[in-house]
């Protein structure tokens, strides 16, 4: 049988998106439902592929099949393309398998020529309509097919309007329009040396080719790159009979949503205009009427529309966004698709559809994009305020939410002003662990350097604080306490108000209105359903009781990562830390560490109490020691004075600690191999804190559950782990023994060094749990420095070398292979090995799905991503069951 | 049956080293050969283990077995321990499975007490001998068992000598010695509150325990650490009847070698002293006689000794180092072991033993340690000169050989002085690629920082230039053109002569005599035999035709790694490189690259011609671009002036290129993804050069074979490779086509990113060869920065976390696992995938064996390690066949 390249709408259905494109499949589906759709046919995406592979040609069968379908269409419509008396007009539209709105070309009113325009005038009894249609067609054809600049036509149009003395196109008469058509055609001949083609078949052929060509125009390619649309062979082309909402007063056009797309309320919603075309609704020249008005104006049509909406919504089991046209009192549906909606509406509609019996819970969960939930958890900018305000700079949307505050340039100033009750936005070139207090205080953080996974971004996401990172548009003068917009030269001084939108990375001058998040009942319902279905536990990365509280509110079932180093920077502690680093022997270090012990113990007591018996995984000290020492000359001198050491000695120490590749340096458990007393202190603090929480209070008699998990970072070799485990066990045993309690605790490790992954069997001999540190595993596995790779990773993603930035979305193929190896080797040796993830990926939906697929016990993510992970984990189960 | 803890010498053999220790097994073996060895027995190493595991106790069976063996010994000797008339005396000696000379304790003359000393005096008819033996025994026992400082005894001895008025111990009479014994015992009571034990069984018991204790003394532990002795459970203890070379004039003692240990010549060699003990020979009070004198003095004994030597050498199939004692005209052999020898002797003896029919070629090859060959390839310091000269500083022995020259502090100065015909030693804090010319010129290189795999070390080894790295003893003042010895304050100025020994890292002031290497006929024989047996091809890492020539002389069968970046630093080229880096667009970069093209082409022509058809693997540009830009403020200003750019612009570019972790940064193929024009130029240069070499010369009509292999570095993702391969093929195809020749070439990649190893199946779809870059694979796989890890890796090795520094010896367990995965995945997809290694490990014997075991096609190493790799590859085959 001959291969089928062209399908009438009756022949397709929604499963055929890959070859018919989204629009074509949809039109076919609706035709199949018996809904009145203007008839037509679709040239498949495969033809587009053949066209581009064969030097812009395709086999004669394609042409024959198009002719055949066209004849069928003519029969259906009782009109013929190009016929003088009552011509068939068609639209030619692109439509790929993925939505690429406005990126490719469209031609309307095809089939008009010098004869048929007259026929249309007569038949419609509306010569102005006919000539305006012809004018529009020639202009569109001229631009799209003949590649003439739109301005050439606009100039002619304007000139005529001037001459005639009218303001609006609508004031032009049929005669004026006829004159314009003549001038258009003269211009085409002047510019292209040939006339606009009168033969409708030629018009059609050229238009189809033009649509195919538009698949590879610059903006379409860029759109696919930006939206990460891959694996498509091309666009389909839809040829459809034209219907006209501007034919007469008994005609009209409109758009409607089956439910309210802002709130999700189950109320028919939309607007329409009589005697108008779609573009008139969009152009805003006339104000459209609310859809409810149609009920009064034409009850029959309204009822028919409502009935169709119900039918289509039920059919697609989702809220629909529909376009319709009324031509001479007859309703046509031009398009129906799942409607875009706010996050709140998404959640409400999903829940309502279950209540209405349309969806199962599992189906409803699949309707919500996990990432959307983020919107519901953060303060948002008021959309109207946002629309009116001027964007002064744009950076990376590093942590969602909105922030309004006065600009400050140092963490100390941020802290001070906040103590005074002021709202501040902290503006830094980049942040460092020393800035932690200021970052905690600020409403928002703006950095000039750093990527989505820079320190500022990671910490801000953890805090749920709005953050824009890597904003290259600004030039910061910290000393001068101001920043300058590179382009405009605008200067923003300390104390000036700015507003950040962490959702899109836009920075505004002044104060914009914000809206508080509302965790509505429907949100809770979605979460509960997720919890019923998911198999992964969801933990959080939290360093403080405050973080932990937020995370528990969001449903965290434990702490998967507590980074103890952050605790080392607070208040006076940093002094003791530095004393420890500068000590010349074990005794000196132990003395300094003894000062830190009570602080650490209090930290852990707070965490254990907040988590009420949920497991708390505490990572022992990880960063290289130089991170705790100052960098600038001035800070070094200040510290030397404070510590009463010679500045030269201090400098020598700093230079001693300097590393060429700190990422691969003396950090993590390597520190503890060299200075075991550091971990000794931390283990003591953990176990003593756990005992204190676990034991009965002498006053009130209450005791609490506690489940500490001690995590040794950066293990690359099983012997590192066994040496440190032995010390840990000895210390813990002694403390527990003297407490008289029975305290269960676990000792495990992060798998973040590739070597650890491939020798996981040896490590699992002793480790009770693995937590994949996928940030570092990505750095070492792919050989990318997170701090530097921003320079080239964008290009890597654009070129398709990686599908997505591997620091944002787990690289399942490469880093994932290391994980697969480690899980297999680890579980072979210890079948009940507890396995989790605590990298940034723990809150990224596709990565959560991967973790589920690998049999992980839990994922851990920042508090604000816990709901996302809960839903993603449920979706992973649902998808798995489907297969 | 009862477990056997104690073996008489008759019961053991040389296979039982693990439980009898080296000495015990050896004495047993000789006993078994019927050689007259003083009889005795051995307490096994297992007892040492039990002793330490059980709080310094062992089961009563052990004591019973010792008593039993002692009775047997007494029967054999016809004497009894502690007997008054004719006492049996024994020695108690340590002896682990690995040689640890002098590290553990020994006790001689055990069995003497107040009664038996008289019996010994009578029986030997030599009271002085008896009392001196008793004195020595008490002193040894006091020090070793009772833990009294030797100085306490020495003081008494000196005081008596003073009182008596004699200079030498030998001038003391029996009476004097008896008085000393009394004082010794009084001192013991004074210090320890108890007397020296008179009961010989107690003496024996305590001495055995003391030997066990010495297994864990500080120096023994350190020795094992330093010499990487692992996996041993403890030391054995040998109890052996004493024989005395100082009994009378018909007694004597000596050491001999079955061949000359310096030259390897097959000539009996040694020295002896009559009426003397072993320590007298060592002490140097009397001058020993050459062994040949014994033939005249006592022909029968001499002949017996020669016969035994022959027998033992044949038995062990190796040159022996033996100790003997003549007691009252009767010859006893105390020890025989494979003799230490120079590298030259090793080679000669191995070859001679084959000629003599003692060894097969394969056996002979196993007698040579590959590392030893290094000595034969480099200039060496004259040993006598070395012994006399003062070491002023010590660093890491980074590249072997010797260098004598005037100190210079910059590469430029090194180059200049060398052009003037002077010999220089380049002294730097550390070297960078910019120093390459100076490093080429210098006779030797001394750096204050950096490890065994620092830039200086790697480059120097490549050049075969002597280098001492990481010499922390010196403080360099580059501006002041001097360095200072930190300890002594000694100042060495530019122009002063120093001498380096790259073999042991020692630095000498002044000029020391050196000896040129001689690649003797025996060396060549060993190499030929290796080549007959080995299966791996041996290639070299070479960047210049000079390197390549050296390597070919040493037997290299191709270039496994040509680092093109080194070529970028020479002369004017660096200017064009910088112009390329500073260019703001593709055109600018292409213009600059066009200047480099002819240079690169010439580089490759030179290499191809030198290698005469052997494969030449050329790695495209690898380092990050910032390595080509200056660092210091001054250099930046100079360059800005030279390049006629604004210093600010230049600084901004440098700051733009700065990376936090350059190891994981924008380098390798990532550069080419961003700036494909760089590799385009290099590919063009390679292919054009190959064509030029391959084509017939119009004048002479000759053409040469050429086999280029283009290697793309730092691939982590198969898509990087396929993108770059496609460009490479397009360029190559065009050039080859227009040449009209048929030029075969290969395109492959380095496997040095862990991700590449675990996705090797995908990469092998397109790559024709893999070359494991084990330096970087170790860095990323283990998460160690080569530049920084020196700080903690020593401790890692000391603690047994890694057996050896993984940058020196391939970490087979971890990095090796990545390699195994990659080889398996790669070969699964492409069974004829060519696999090699080009990291530093390619010339390290155990790593070469690993590569052979994994089915590699070749290893590639620096030119001076080619002979080592040839032998190691042969040994790998021999060991494999044995199994």
From TrEMBL, chains A, B:
Domain Pyruvate phosphate dikinase AMP/ATP-binding: start-end pairs: 19-55, 58-298, 302-353
InterPro entries per record: ATP_grasp_subdomain_1, PEP-util_enz_mobile_dom, PEP_util_AS, PEP_util_C, Phosphohistidine_dom_sf, PPDK_AMP/ATP-bd, Pyruvate_phosphate_dikinase, Pyrv/PenolPyrv_kinase-like_dom
Tree of life domain: Bacteria
Top-rank EC class of the record's enzyme: transferase
Catalytic activity line of the entry: pyruvate + phosphate + ATP = phosphoenolpyruvate + AMP + diphosphate + H(+)
Binding residues for substrate: 563, 619, 752, 773-776
Entry-linked Pfam families: PEP-utilizers (PF00391), PEP-utilizers_C (PF02896), PPDK_N (PF01326)
Catalytic residue positions: 455, 838
Domain called PEP-utilising enzyme C-terminal: residue spans: 520-876
Keywords from the UniProt entry: ATP-binding, Kinase, Magnesium, Metal-binding, Nucleotide-binding, Pyruvate, Transferase
SUPFAM superfamilies xref list: Glutathione synthetase ATP-binding domain-like, Phosphoenolpyruvate/pyruvate domain, Phosphohistidine domain
Enzyme Commission number(s) from the entry: 2.7.9.1
Keyword Magnesium annotated: yes
Cofactor or coenzyme needed: Mg(2+)
Domain PEP-utilising enzyme mobile positions: 424-505
Signal peptide: none
Kinase recorded as keyword: yes
GO MF annotations in UniProt: ATP binding; kinase activity; metal ion binding; pyruvate, phosphate dikinase activity
Family as reported in the entry's similarity comment: Belongs to the PEP-utilizing enzyme family.
Protein name: Pyruvate, phosphate dikinase
Provenance organism: Candidatus Buchananbacteria bacterium RIFCSPLOWO2_01_FULL_39_33
């Amino acid at each position: 049988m001959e291969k089928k390249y062209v399908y009438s709408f009756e022949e397709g259905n929604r499963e055929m998106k890959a070859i018919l494109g989204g629009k074509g499949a949809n039109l076919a589906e609706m035709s199949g439902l018996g809904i009145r759709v203007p008839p037509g046919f679709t040239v498949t995406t495969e033809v587009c592929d053949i066209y581009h592979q064969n030097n812009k040609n395709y086999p004669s069968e394609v042409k024959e099949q198009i002719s055949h379908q066209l004849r069928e269409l003519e029969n259906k419509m009782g009109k013929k393309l190009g016929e003088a008396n009552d011509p068939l007009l068609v639209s030619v539209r692109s439509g790929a398998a993925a939505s690429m709105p406005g990126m490719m070309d469209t031609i309307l009113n095809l089939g008009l020529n010098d004869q048929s325009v007259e026929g249309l005038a007569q038949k419609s009894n509306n010569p102005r309509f006919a000539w305006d249609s012809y004018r529009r067609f020639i202009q569109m054809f001229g631009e799209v097919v003949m590649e003439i600049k739109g301005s050439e036509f606009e100039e002619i149009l304007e000139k005529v309007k001037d001459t005639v003395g009218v303001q609006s196109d609508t004031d032009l008469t049929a005669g004026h329009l006829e004159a314009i058509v003549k001038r258009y055609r003269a211009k085409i001949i002047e510019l292209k040396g040939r006339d606009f083609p009168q033969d409708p078949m030629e018009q059609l052929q050229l238009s189809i080719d033009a649509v195919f060509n538009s698949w590879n125009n610059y903006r379409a390619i860029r759109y696919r790159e930006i939206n990460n649309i891959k694996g498509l062979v091309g666009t389909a082309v839809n040829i459809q009979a034209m219907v006209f909402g501007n034919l007469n007063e008994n005609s009209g056009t409109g758009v409607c949503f089956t439910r309210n797309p802002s709130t999700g309320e189950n109320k028919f919603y939309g607007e329409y205009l009589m005697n108008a075309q779609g573009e008139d609704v969009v152009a805003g020249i006339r104000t459209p009427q609310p859809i409810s008005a149609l009920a009064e104006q034409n009850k029959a049509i309204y009822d028919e529309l409502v009935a169709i909406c119900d039918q289509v919504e039920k059919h697609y089991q989702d809220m629909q966004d529909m376009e319709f046209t009324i031509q001479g009192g007859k309703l046509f549906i031009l398009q129906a698709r799942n409607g875009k909606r706010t996050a709140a509406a998404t959640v409400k509609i999903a829940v309502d559809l279950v209540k209405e019996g349309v969806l199962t819970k599992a189906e409803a969960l699949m309707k919500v994009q996990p990432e959307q939930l983020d919107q519901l958890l953060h303060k948002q900018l008021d959309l109207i305020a946002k629309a009116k305000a001027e964007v002064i700079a744009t950076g990376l949307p590093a942590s969602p939410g909105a922030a309004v505050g006065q600009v400050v340039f140092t963490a100390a100033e941020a802290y001070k002003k906040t103590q005074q009750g002021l709202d501040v936005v902290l503006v830094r070139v980049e942040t460092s662990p020393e800035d932690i207090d200021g970052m905690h205080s600020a409403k928002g953080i703006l950095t000039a350097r750093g990527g989505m996974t820079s320190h500022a971004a990671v910490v801000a996401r953890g805090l749920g604080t709005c953050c824009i990172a890597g904003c290259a548009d600004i030039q910061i003068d910290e000393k001068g306490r101001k920043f300058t917009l590179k382009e405009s030269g605008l200067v923003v001084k300390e104390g000036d108000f700015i507003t950040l939108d962490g959702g899109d990375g836009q920075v505004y001058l002044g104060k914009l209105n914000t809206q508080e998040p509302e965790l509505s009942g429907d949100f809770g319902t979605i979460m509960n359903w997720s919890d019923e279905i998911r198999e992964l536990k969801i933990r959080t990365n939290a360093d403080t009781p405050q973080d932990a509280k937020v995370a528990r509110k969001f449903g965290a079932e434990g702490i998967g990562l507590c980074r103890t180093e952050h605790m080392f920077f607070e208040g006076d502690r940093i002094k003791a830390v530095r004393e420890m680093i500068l000590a010349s022997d074990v005794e000196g270090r132990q003395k300094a560490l003894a000062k830190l012990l009570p602080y650490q113990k209090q930290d852990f007591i707070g965490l254990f109490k907040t988590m009420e018996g949920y497991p708390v995984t505490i990572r022992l000290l990880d960063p290289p020691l130089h991170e705790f020492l100052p960098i600038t000359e001035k800070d070094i001198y200040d510290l030397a004075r404070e510590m009463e050491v010679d500045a030269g000695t201090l400098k020598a120490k700093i230079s001693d600690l300097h590393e060429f590749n700190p990422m691969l340096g003396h950090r993590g458990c390597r520190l503890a191999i060299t200075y075991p007393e550091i971990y000794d202190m931390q283990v003591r603090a953990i176990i003593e804190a756990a005992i204190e929480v676990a034991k009965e209070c002498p006053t009130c008699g209450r005791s609490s559950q506690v489940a500490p998990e001690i995590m040794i970072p950066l293990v690359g070799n099983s012997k590192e782990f066994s040496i440190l485990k032995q010390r840990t066990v000895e210390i813990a045993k002694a403390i527990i023994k003297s407490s008289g309690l029975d305290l269960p605790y676990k000792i495990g490790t992060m798998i973040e060094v590739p070597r650890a992954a491939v020798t996981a069997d040896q490590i699992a001999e002793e480790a009770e749990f693995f937590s994949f540190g996928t940030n570092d595993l990505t750095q070492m596995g792919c050989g990318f420095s997170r701090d530097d790779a921003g320079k080239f990773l964008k290009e890597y993603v654009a070129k398709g070398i990686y599908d997505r930035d591997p620091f944002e979305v787990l690289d399942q193929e490469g880093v994932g292979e290391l994980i697969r190896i480690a899980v297999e080797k680890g579980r072979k040796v210890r079948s009940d090995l507890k396995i989790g993830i605590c990298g940034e990926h723990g809150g990224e939906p596709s990565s959560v799905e991967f973790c589920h697929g690998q049999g992980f016990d839990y994922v851990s993510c920042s508090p604000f991503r816990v709901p996302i992970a809960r839903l993603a984990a449920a979706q992973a189960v649902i998808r798995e069951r489907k297969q």
